């Protein structure tokens, strides 16, 4: 078994005669004891024993940390299970091989956790944020979100980051003592990647950083970038599988072309899916290495030693190098122009938007069409907030649907034959 040994700066200086930095140096040595391996946590990482707490006080967990408890609650939530049948790009019934919000969330968690371990960040918090970041996504991917936002334009809009927070704070109903699943501040903060100032003013503690222009934890910053790495690379694979983009087109994207040519040079006879998978594997690895090295350099240059100092930085410390940032942006532009707005995808998203719009208008006209739980929400919210409250309950209901549920609900209320 391998065990990490931490050396103080004086120990390191005396042993290596090298110039010492103030950062922890880790050496690996053989450990024959039965003690489990524990990752080394940097002083500027989030520490579960110093969490800013939960909305509702609870006794400390036994045999696990506060962030491990968060992760476990997320995995056991209904909203997490529903991600299996929510779309990334392709509507869920279009095929079983395309990625869903669940597979995407697992891929983000894998990438983010690997980076966190290599950088001495808190793996459990990183994983909790990664697994929960899409809990508020609507059915039908971004098309569903955009249409629901349009439906809610007179009622303060709809945004999936805010909805993810709403899911864990309000809508989950597994506990007797409180609504939601009562996550720690740090996990909730990481879920809320973006927030308009008008919303930040109403969110309490997790909204303060948008008002004060401070930074979230490094774990939250990392998960945001791991999200990009996962969907950029995996949307390429799904796009190629669907036939909507081609290898010839991708040759115009430098970050893909460089790895593709390197694979062919090493394996001249490789072709088909294995060639694509090997190329994407290397792309992910290259982005991850760049992220780690660029972020470590930024952290060292900043001189931060504590989480408070991380929060006080003018810019996020987790970042790509400039060359990789430009290549990543080029890849995003390619996917936007050639996949997300492809005529075939547009036809799918047009149908999806029609479903969301029709359901919203039907429920708004008659809330008795909602399930009993959301009928009660609509009544209570309407009492408190008027028409906006009624609309918010409807948005909650629609956002919680899977693709299949939304299509089935549309079929029960309207004629589905025209959408097939």
From TrEMBL:
Q: So which domain of life are we looking at?
A: Bacteria
**Keyword Hydrolase among record annotations:** yes
Q: Entry's CDD domains? A: HDc
What keyword terms does UniProt attach to this protein? Answer: Hydrolase
| Domain HD: start-end pairs | 101-232
Any GO molecular function: dGTPase activity
Q: Where are the transmembrane segments?
A: none
Q: Which PROSITE patterns match?
A: HD
- The reply on keyword Hydrolase is yes
Picking any one GO biological process from the record gives: dGTP catabolic process
Residues making up the signal peptide according to the UniProt record: none
Question: What family does the database annotate?
Answer: Belongs to the dGTPase family. Type 2 subfamily.
The protein here is known as: Deoxyguanosinetriphosphate triphosphohydrolase-like protein
Q: Which organism is it from?
A: Candidatus Thiothrix putei
Q: What is the lineage of its organism?
A: Bacteria, Pseudomonadati, Pseudomonadota, Gammaproteobacteria, Thiotrichales
């Amino acid at each position: 078994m391998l065990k990490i040994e931490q050396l103080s700066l004086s120990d390191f200086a005396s042993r290596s005669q090298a110039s010492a930095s103030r950062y922890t140096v880790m050496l690996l040595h053989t450990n024959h004891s039965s003690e489990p391996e524990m990752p080394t946590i940097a002083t500027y990482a989030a520490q579960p024993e110093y969490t800013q707490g939960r909305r509702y006080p609870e006794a400390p967990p036994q045999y696990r940390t506060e962030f491990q408890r968060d992760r476990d609650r997320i995995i056991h939530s209904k909203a997490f299970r529903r991600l299996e049948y929510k779309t990334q790009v392709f509507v869920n019934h279009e095929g079983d091989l395309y990625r869903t919000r669940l597979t995407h969330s697992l891929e983000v968690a894998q990438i983010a956790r690997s980076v966190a371990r290599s950088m001495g960040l808190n793996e459990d918090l990183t994983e909790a944020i990664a697994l929960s970041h899409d809990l508020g996504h609507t059915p039908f991917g971004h098309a569903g979100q955009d249409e629901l936002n349009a439906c809610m334009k007179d009622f303060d809009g709809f945004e999936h980051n805010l909805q993810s927070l709403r899911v864990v704070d309000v809508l989950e109903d597994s506990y007797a003592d409180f609504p939601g699943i009562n996550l720690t501040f740090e996990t909730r903060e990481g879920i809320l990647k973006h927030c308009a100032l008008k919303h930040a003013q109403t969110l309490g503690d997790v909204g303060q950083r948008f008002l004060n222009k401070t930074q979230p934890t490094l774990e939250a910053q990392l998960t945001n970038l791991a999200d990009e790495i996962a969907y950029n690379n995996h949307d390429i694979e799904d796009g190629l599988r669907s036939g909507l983009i081609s290898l010839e087109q991708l040759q115009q994207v430098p970050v893909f072309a460089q790895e593709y040519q390197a694979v062919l040079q090493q394996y001249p006879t490789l072709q088909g899916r294995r060639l694509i998978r090997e190329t994407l594997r290397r792309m992910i690895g290259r982005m991850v290495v760049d992220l780690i090295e660029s972020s470590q350099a930024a952290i060292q240059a900043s001189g931060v030693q504590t989480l408070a100092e991380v929060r006080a930085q003018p810019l996020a410390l987790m970042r790509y190098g400039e060359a990789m940032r430009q290549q990543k942006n080029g890849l995003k532009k390619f996917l936007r122009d050639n996949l997300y707005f492809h005529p075939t995808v547009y036809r799918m998203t047009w149908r999806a938007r029609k479903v969301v719009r029709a359901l919203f208008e039907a429920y708004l006209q008659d809330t008795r069409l909602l399930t009993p739980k959301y009928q009660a929400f609509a009544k209570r919210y309407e009492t408190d907030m008027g028409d906006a409250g009624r609309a918010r309950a409807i948005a909650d209901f629609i956002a919680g649907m899977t693709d299949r549920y939304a299509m089935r609900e549309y079929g029960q209320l309207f004629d589905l034959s025209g959408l097939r």
